[in-house]
Design brief:
By secondary structure, the chain is α+β, with helices and mostly antiparallel strands. It contains 11 helices and 17 strands. InterPro entries: CAT-like_dom_sf, Sec_Metabolite_Acyltrans. This is BAHD acyltransferase.
Amino acid sequence: MATENGKKEVEMRVKLINKTNVYPSSKKLGKQETPLVTFDLPYVTFYYNQKLLLYKNSGEDGIKFEETVEKLKEGLAFILEDFFPLAGKLEKDEEGVLKVVCEEECPGVEVVEAVAEGVDVAELADAESSSFLHEIVPYHGVMNLEGLHRPLLAVQFTKLKDGLAIGCAFNHAILDGMSTWHFLSSWAEICRGSTTISVQPFHDRAKARSTRVKLDLPESPAAFEKPVTANGESKEENNHTPAEPQLREKIFRFSGSTIEKIKSKANENLADDSKPFSTFQAFGSHIWYAVTKARNLKPEDYTVFTIFADLRKRVDPPMPDSYFGNLIQAIFTVTAAGALLSNPAEYGTKAIQGVIKSHDAKAINDRNAAWESNPVLFKYKDAGMNCVAVGSSPRFPVYEVDFGFGKPERVRSGTNNKFDGMVYLYQGKDGGKSMDVEITLESEAMKNLEMDEEFTKV
């Protein structure tokens, strides 16, 4: 059976063969509590953040599934001693403030073992995303607030025809992308034979923000249909919900030389006294321009570029890269579509550079204080009108996650937290400055983007 995109659907379904929970291996942890601070709480009503790592068999024997899974689970139990919040659960304290609690009766990590021997790595690594990812990556459509009664991390190991899929679902209310890849890299380090990890996680979130904020959460995820204030009042009088657009998800791969060309083009008309544009600023503007053009917006329509920016070096005092939790904020810049498309490349790049520069420690504190005085629960797609929202980072060492049987063949996201305009940036497998750009767009806009040679071939 073929889809409307001409892609062959995977016919064989996944067979689940085992389900268990993995707990920290040490009994000496005792009760550990970690508060959710202002940097964490806005993500309570997002969905679990999903990552998929695909490993291909190498050598004559390939990956021995049962033996490998046991080794991975042993390494997971060991590493949870250091990353104990992932083994815990969400709770409210006596004042109704959310925290993560890890103790003897903690849920641990939910681990599923499965077989899909009719599926190969190439199919799952294909540029066009498939609904089959729902079968490979756990907790599809599960909201973070469900961490009150579910594990905060779920992992699925799936045996493929020619390799192994590791699908992970992390509760986004307790960690961001930097922490996610710190954990995965450390887990892999232990599985390769190390008895300690290179970088210990930093768990003192109060050092980043100590304000306590009580949230009155919806009774169930189904009750959460639009942004509401923390006391449950609707922010919108109009309760009409428009029909969801038909979306497509696709990965575009850019070589290091192409990235360099984009950066050089953005900087070629720079004034002598201007600060050069970074790779991210130039490439982000390149994506923003191309997506805006593909949408066929009116010149007067606004378009928003949103960055989920890492703040570890921007807060005062700065936090270490090993800070374990969320230390990100959404930063927005907006312009009319006509202005973005009619001006030279540096127009959008300069706007991005400016908003990044202005988001200093004072701006971060002001944003936090405003939210704390009137906490708002957001949906994951509240990123702005006609937006391009960039998450993840090509700085994350996604292709260094080697559990002892080689580096990943491909790394990608699951399907949670994706909406029209969501972009995930990953380092390219080729290394250097190459990048994989995972874009979700309305189907007609995606079709236009695919035909835009200025976007992919520069």
